[in-house]
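Re: that chain you flagged

S.,

Sorry for the slow reply, it's been a week of failed gels. I finally had a moment to sit down with the sequence you sent. For the record, here it is as I used it:
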Amino acid sequence: MDIVKIQSDNTGSAVLLTIFLASIIIIVGISFNWLVKEHVKTAEVLKDKAEAMTTAVSVFDTLMFAMLTGTLSNNRILVSDNSLLGFDRIPLNNLPLNVRDDITINVQDTNGKISVYLGADSDLTRLIRLVDEKSNAALITDNLNDWTDADNIPRPLGAEAEYYKGIGMPYAPRNFSMQYMEELLLLRGMSWELYKKIKPYITIFPGTSGINPATSAPLVVIASLDISEENRKVISEYVDKGLEVPDEVFYNLTGKRIHSLEYDLFQPSRYLEITVSYGYSKSLYTINAGIGLRTAESAPYSVYYWKEG
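Prediction finished late last night. Pasting the structure tokens below so you have them in one place:
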């Protein structure tokens, strides 16, 4: 009887040990399988990212070649070889162009935007008042100009290094031209809400010949020319039809001549803001760049800022 009991106990222990070992093997197997799947997923993500990056850079290079060999007009670049990108013109008003279902490019003439390097009672002041009448436009422009000028003397509503140090900020004004638009968020008086409202209409490039209504958003035209929406629509009708606005008509609408000693309106800048996006429902990779098409001794164009990811 005792022998049977001992054998029964040994059998039970063996079963428990077998179950325990089997559980460990199953857990290790499941963990290994999960680990393999995660590595496969990571590899697929890296593959997709690498493909997106390579494709975006390739399209950007092709776009630059198409623009450099094309013909610049007041609101577009006519492409000499439409097999490069699949179309014969590149609009300069930020209109999206689909190179493929997964590749989109946008090109914006910076004369179609308002330069941030403008002081009080300027296009920028009027733009701020148009998008947010409660904002103190003079506060923004004074601080913006203090951020970019070379001295340390604050304007009446501005701020220099001493102010930012006094409120515990780990930075001081650049005292030079802005390198990225996001620097506006560092300014005294700038809120995230106002930044979002004005960002689509402004540029960190300097204006070169005055506003270009042919590549401008409606708010930019209104703020820059200081006109009503009704008068803007009249100008827009000419632009949309590809017609030149008669100088007398333009003067009656705006009080300005299209051509003067100070400016030459309806002319594109050779500074362009370019976006190349790769992705279907959402962007997997994006290049944002500020480009100058003026040929230098060492390069056919200049890159003023470059962001990708």
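What I noticed first: The chain has a mean pLDDT of 88.

Talk soon,
D.
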